[in-house]
Batch of 2 targets.
Target 1
Amino acid sequence: MKKKSIRTKLAIDLFTLQGKWTVWFLGIMFVVYIAHILYPLIYTGESGRTVDDFYARSYIFGNIYMLVIGIITSISCLPYYVQNGITRMDYFFGATIGTLGLAIIIPLVALIIHFLTKGMIDWTNLPIELKGLPDIRIAEEDPFIAQMILAVIYAPSVVEISGLSILVFTVNLFFYYVIGWMIGAGFYRFGGIKGMMFIVLALAIFLINSGIWGNPVPAWLPIPDLTLSFYAIIGTVLLIFIVLGIIRLVTRNMRIKL
């Protein structure tokens, strides 16, 4: 079988597998979201509440979800495919392409669900006000630990829903996935203290990305403030390529544990 067809099939397989997980993730999140809207209205009669819209929630929780499945697939899927005759190079390209497809689909599905729920709320005249993404900024006076946590939890965002917002959402999802992939691959190959160093590296990359998007970072990280612009998106994409390069170096000759 030709390399191209192997990688294409692998990309489809991984997209399908992770897509099934994503259906569960979005489905559970949607049920919780509806319950969060309806429960106070039905049982307490509370009205006039302000609730995050579904797109905003997907934006925040979707990134953490991609980080987690990046770790899971790097530990479980690569060994499985290599043991079944797939080369590490083919897996690398197949996983990259398949996950990029997933990162493109998730914002579109979240946007569709957002408009459907918004339409239902408007149609039923529920006393609910939907709010979009919060404009969260890390303050310079925040302690280093707080800056680190916020850099991981709150990805760069565009407050108003637009084509730019969807693009940034997609880039963020893929960025978080490759970070998780790098962490999982590092732990699988090295384990122990060396594996922990990949978490430290991941935190440093999160901080760099945060600085690129205009958030204050420690003085020892001389990162240019590119703010919310096309240049900031390019900065994150460059970080993605760097992380992919690290993943390739780690997994190229990685011994598969039986």
Note: The longest strand covers residues 49-52.
Target 2
Amino acid sequence: MDKSLVEAALAAAEQHGKDVAEVPLGAIAAAAGISRSTLLRRLGGSRAKLDDAVRQAGVDPGGRPPVRDRAIEAAATLIARDGLATITMEAVATAAQCSPTSLHAVFGNRDGLLATMFDRYVPVPDLEALAANPPERLEDTVHAVYAALAEAFAREPRVLPAIFGDLLTRPNGTAASMLKANLPRMFASLSALLMAQVQAGRLRPLPLPLLIQLMIGPMAGHMLLRPVLKDALGDLLPSVEESAHTFAEAFIRATAP
């Protein structure tokens, strides 16, 4: 196999942010400066030879999750283990077994990577989906919100606790910027859910920011402390589901008209 074709395949893969096996032959041909038909002819009509040559060059041509998914998972694992401040494109590329160029092609920059990862590991999309099709009963609405919060905090890798840790230690750091950027989305979803209940007379008309804080504060605090509480209290600590139910019932009682 002509070494220049392998180099062209690797260059096209980096440019498109994909594994070699996922890059169209036309893109590889363009990187090699030849036509697609010429490339096919030199490959004997099948790209299998090219994949084999790439593999012999020490690069996996494909068969793994896309770069985007590997990078998000790698970033989440690094954040949960080492903290948000340690994340660089180079560190994520190493953990995801791809090149920094591939990450830049997919996410643009570090902020783009973190924003995409943030969206997967925080409850904002879940709250948006709930607001788009809200339950009619107050009890069902509150319990659904608490279930979404509990799931997000318990989701592995534990990205959300790491984000809160960065927020508390660096008030002007990356976590603060990410939360500020996503706060309007979360505020809009919770506003739609809660104001409908206020207007129906099922909740007291408290200032909306305080009503939202009253709702999410106790559960967030519990989930942040839960690993320590579990070690200290063992079986005395209620399950996550029972804790979420208890906090939800407490919120309903506290905000009843």
Note: DSSP finds 14 helices and no strands in the chain.
